[in-house]
Design brief:
The complex is a heterodimer of chains A (about 250) and B (about 240). Chain A has a domain of about 140 residues: P-loop containing nucleotide triphosphate hydrolases (Rossmann fold, 3-Layer(aba) Sandwich), CATH 3.40.50.300. Chain A has 8 helices and 10 strands. In chain A, the strands form 2 sheets. A 6-stranded mixed sheet of chain A has the order 6-7-8-3-9-10, with helices on both faces. A 4-stranded antiparallel sheet of chain A has the order 2-1-4-5. Chain A is globular, with a radius of gyration of 18 Å. The two termini of chain A are about 20 Å apart. The longest helix of chain B is centred in the middle third of the chain and has 31 residues. The model of chain B has no long low-confidence stretch (mean pLDDT about 90). The chains are: A alpha/beta (about 250), B mainly alpha (about 240). The interface between A and B is large, with 43 and 35 residues.
């Protein structure tokens, strides 16, 4: 049986920088106070590919996603997202990124429809994005509940709306932090095609579902406890057993 | 599902401001969290002053002080609530993920606060006049003083509220930092208002000078806010 230390960081051409990389990190560090959450991350994701990010709680997965979403500044290192150097050119990347995080980013005292119209207008969708909103609501079967206040909806319904919000503007980079959380199998099957792989879309998915991650992703980044890289490379290069061993290495 | 990539257009700061302001006003209309509390606070405070001072009429500096102090403390109720939804419901992140300037958020919140204050004053000033004034002739020009005061409260309040939003001590931080910053506004507004609320009817001596001081303060804090706000929004 492998343990966490047996799954070593190793150079892999699958994550080497390329001219068409949608995401490129070089020596990324992120610290909160004197605690390093991400340590010396270097990898690239070619455009149109999917990377799964695995790791135990506290490994820095969400922090990494928030840096890629331009919501957090790196402490050190170079980050390029969609050709924009962060944080300097963050404003150029914003509007091209879709983000589904732990929080749905929806106002509880607005209805689902009002929330989506608010986001569509902030993203400058033509016509207030009404056609796009209707289509997305239909796809996640939320049309009939779109006029209800978000505070009155179940967690699964809110998650469906959060996915709609993240997809409204047709993002080139989709950052998904456990996108299936709160979803029952039926709702997950509705959301799945919307957030699935697409040629024009690069995806980074944080998940604890090792088998799904290895099946779905082209690339895997496995973070060990303390935010160091345990594995970064093609998903075919990591077995499910080795991936699970990284979790067992958590404190 | 058709793609919308390439169809989106970066909205101007003004249109983003309008979108955020419309959202805030819609939430306030639906929840009535700020303006009714401010109005109730103001009227209650007038009752307390009326019986605390044991005076049936006020004029000059005392009248200006009672009115402006009441408006100031009522404003702090709203300032404390300005960014609650952005903090608790992810509004900061949502707006930063959109291709809009941070200044749109600053401007929208300042505009919302000015609207709340004008609504408050539409209730509080007549109530104040009923409680304390023998003559209402100074009230029309007084609204000019109050408007400039509101702009100063908004420019400063939004900045401090935004800085304090992610602090656990935000309810303490806002008044502790905001009140000293607002001393110049209160001095200028009180000096202008006391002339308009003088016992023998409004006098306009020196009012223009104090209005200019208020306008200068408003512009200074608005400029500081727009200059630093994008930086403040970052982690």
């Amino acid at each position: 049986m492998a343990d966490a230390t047996s799954v070593q960081k190793r150079p892999d051409p699958a994550i080497a920088p390329t001219p068409d990389a949608a995401v490129e990190l070089t020596g990324l560090w992120r610290e909160f106070g004197d605690r390093a959450v991400l340590r010396d991350l270097t990898f690239a994701i070619p455009a149109g590919r999917t990377m799964a990010v695995l790791g135990p709680n506290g490994a820095g997965k969400t922090t990494l996603l928030r840096i890629l979403a331009t919501l957090l500044r790196p402490t050190a290192g170079d980050v390029r997202v969609l050709g924009c150097a962060l944080p300097r050119d963050a404003w150029r990347a914003r509007g091209r990124i879709g983000f589904v995080g732990h929080e749905p980013l929806l106002y509880r005292d607005l209805t689902g429809g009002e929330n989506l119209r608010f986001h569509a207008r902030l993203h400058g969708l033509p016509g207030g994005g009404s056609e796009r909103i209707e289509a997305l609501l239909d796809r996640v079967r939320m049309t009939r509940r779109a006029d209800e206040l978000v505070r009155n909806l179940s967690a699964g319904m809110i998650q469906r709306l959060a996915v709609c919000r993240a997809l409204l503007h047709g993002p080139e980079l989709l950052l998904l932090d456990e996108p299936r959380s709160h979803l029952d199998p039926e709702a997950a099957s509705l959301v799945e095609p919307l957030v699935g792989a697409a040629p024009a879309r690069t995806r980074v998915i944080v998940t604890h579902d090792v088998d799904a991650a290895l099946a779905e992703a082209d690339l895997v980044l496995a973070l060990g406890a303390g935010g160091s890289v345990a594995y970064a490379g093609a998903s075919s290069g990591l077995s499910a057993g080795d991936a699970r061993a990284i979790y067992r290495g958590s404190p | 599902m058709t793609s919308v990539s390439g169809e989106t257009r970066r909205p101007s700061s003004l249109s983003a401001l309008r979108v955020i302001l419309a959202k805030d006003l819609r939430v306030e209309l639906r929840t009535l969290q700020s303006v009714p509390a401010m109005a109730l606070f103001a009227v209650t405070t007038f009752v307390l002053f009326r019986y605390g001072l044991d005076r049936e009429s006020l004029s000059g500096g005392l009248a200006a002080g009672v009115l402006l102090a009441t408006v100031l403390f009522a404003a702090i109720l709203a300032v404390n609530r300005l960014f609650v939804a952005e903090r608790d419901e992810g509004g900061f992140d949502a707006i930063r993920l959109a291709p809009v300037d941070g200044s749109a958020l600053l401007g929208a919140k300042a505009a919302a606060l000015v609207i709340y204050l004008l609504l408050l004053e539409a209730i509080a000033v007549p109530a104040f006049a009923l409680f304390f004034l023998d003559s209402w002739s100074g009230l029309p020009p007084l609204f000019g003083v109050l408007l400039l005061t509101d702009l100063g409260l908004a420019a400063t309040g939004v900045l401090i509220s935004s800085i304090a939003a992610n602090s656990r001590a935000r309810d303490l931080l806002v008044p502790l930092v905001l009140l000293p910053l607002l001393v110049p506004v209160m001095i200028a507004a009180a000096n202008a208002a006391q002339e308009l609320l003088a016992a023998g009817g409004p006098s306009y001596d020196g009012v223009a000078k104090w209005l200019a001081v208020l306008a200068f303060y408003d512009m200074t804090f608005a400029a500081v806010g727009f200059a630093v706000y994008d930086y403040l929004l970052e982690d």
